[in-house]
Design goal:
Rossmann fold; about 450 residues; Dihydrodipicolinate Reductase, domain 2; 14 strands
């Protein structure tokens, strides 16, 4: 496929890109046969009660937002014309969540490499949104130039949900057109993409544009509560962090034997390193963001592979290793062990923090402090991943309405931030490169202005 297609093509997105932060440690990814479909995702968003979409109080406070309702923000305000690039499951869900968040949102344009993807997304959105879906056939863009057509079509806001390899170029194009951007994770798959994404953020900041990301666990009430407790000193000085994901295989879409190699690559992008960056980067970026959240401005000084990266899972297409394991060493002395394995025999996930006088379980929402009764997050708040997905987009649109550009905050801020996405992606890229026998310095990936 041409370089133009590499830069601007968009493809399928799966709904499990953000891990479900439930109390259970066996958070296996469902098989393709049992995975959530786009229809079930949208139906779930329609039927959840309004209260499920409230932002965590801590997130509102740290974002500098008031308790007024989203409906009040949108009521009487100008219409926000939203365009979607990448019409897979996550992109379609995000577009619908934007409409749920703000009554003045209209979804007016769609773009994807494949016509059937656009048609499927259009059908679902039209059924769910009624007259708030305004993407006529003339505003449904297909092919390698679809993303560029969309950003030049008069939209105000764009959702970037194409394959990770496309996001740096899509951000650059959107910002050049003066658009606010909500970007799925990760930001890029390699150092060149990170540099392009960072340049896009700089230009967005200079022009007062909001760039937010799909780092949804920063809007998970139990995660916010657990992280804040650790940052308040409940476990003492952090010594080590372990982030281990062992989930099911990523989705795979069988194609006719007549399908070209290029179509196979684009339709099943999640299983090809040249499009997704591999599971460690595409999936584990959320866990790595939680580590950076805990470590503040601490920086990795070295990363090394632990064992060998395993070959792609038998019987599953693509070229992504089944498992990647690496160890980061930070300037403060903290050691971060991270691994991501996706196979037909998932074993569950663990995210733990060990401090000088205690430990925390980020997924279970528990903190054990020496000499004290263990603390447990409210169990009723665990297990509802839909809340954090919706809340991330709620906050993004409220920032636009409030005139707040994407800000570099200190402390434990839970506002969505393109720069936090850049840092988390940079850490993931370091790990991917180490596993492949390559190395690069942190400052070569993330410029000083990108710290958040």
């Amino acid at each position: 496929m041409s370089s133009s297609a590499d830069c601007y093509s968009v493809g399928r997105r799966q709904v499990d890109s953000c891990p479900h932060l439930s109390g259970a440690h066996r958070m296996s990814t469902p098989s393709r046969a049992s995975a959530l479909t786009r229809r079930s995702l949208l139906a779930g968003a329609c039927t959840l009660p309004a209260a499920a979409f409230e932002l965590p109080a801590a997130a509102l406070e740290l974002a500098g937002l008031s308790e007024r309702s989203l409906a009040a923000d949108g009521a009487g305000g100008r219409t926000l014309r939203v365009g979607l690039i990448g019409c897979g499951g996550r992109g379609t869900g995000a577009a619908m969540q934007a409409a749920i968040a703000d009554p003045a949102v209209r979804v007016v344009a769609l773009a994807d490499l494949f016509e059937d993807q656009v048609a499927s997304s259009a059908g679902l959105l039209a059924q769910a949104l009624g007259d708030r879906f305004e993407a006529s056939r003339e505003r449904r863009y297909v092919g390698p130039g679809a993303a560029l057509d969309l950003v030049g079509s008069g939209v105000d806001v764009v959702i970037l949900a194409g394959p990770p390899s496309t996001r740096p170029a899509h951000l650059e194009a959107a910002v050049a057109a003066g658009l606010h951007v909500w970007c799925e994770t990760p930001a890029a798959i390699d150092p060149a993409g990170l540099s392009q994404f960072a340049a896009g953020l700089d230009r967005a900041e200079a022009n007062g544009l909001v760039v937010a990301s799909g780092l949804c666990s920063r809007f998970s009430s139990p995660t916010v509560s657990t992280v804040e407790r650790v940052l308040d000193g409940a476990v003492g000085t952090i010594r080590s962090i372990s982030l281990h994901h062992d989930g099911g295989l990523p989705w795979w879409k069988p194609l006719p034997e007549t399908a070209s190699a290029a179509e196979q690559l684009e339709r099943n992008w999640i299983s090809y390193a040249s499009r997704s960056g591999g599971s460690f980067l595409e999936h584990h970026v959320h866990a790595l963001d939680r580590a950076l959240w805990l470590l503040g401005n601490d920086e990795p000084v070295a990363v090394e592979p632990v064992g060998r990266s395993e070959a792609p899972a038998a019987g599953h297409g693509g070229d992504v290793p089944e498992a990647v394991r690496v160890r980061y060493r930070f300037a403060s002395g903290v050691v971060l062990d991270a691994s991501c394995r996706r196979s037909a025999t998932p074993r569950g996930s663990v995210e733990s923090v060990v401090g000088s006088h205690g430990r925390a379980d980020l997924l279970g929402g528990t903190v054990e402090e020496a000499g004290k009764t263990p603390w447990q997050v409210d169990r009723c708040s665990l297990g509802n991943a839909g809340t954090m997905y919706q809340a991330s987009i709620d906050a993004f649109l409220r920032m636009i309405r409030s005139g707040l550009a994407d800000r570099d905050e200190t402390g434990t801020g839970t506002t969505l931030s393109g720069r936090r996405l850049l840092r988390a992606t940079g850490l993931a890229v370091m790990g991917r490169m180490a596993a492949e026998g390559r190395s690069i310095h942190w400052k070569g990936l993330v410029s000083p202005s990108a710290r958040a």
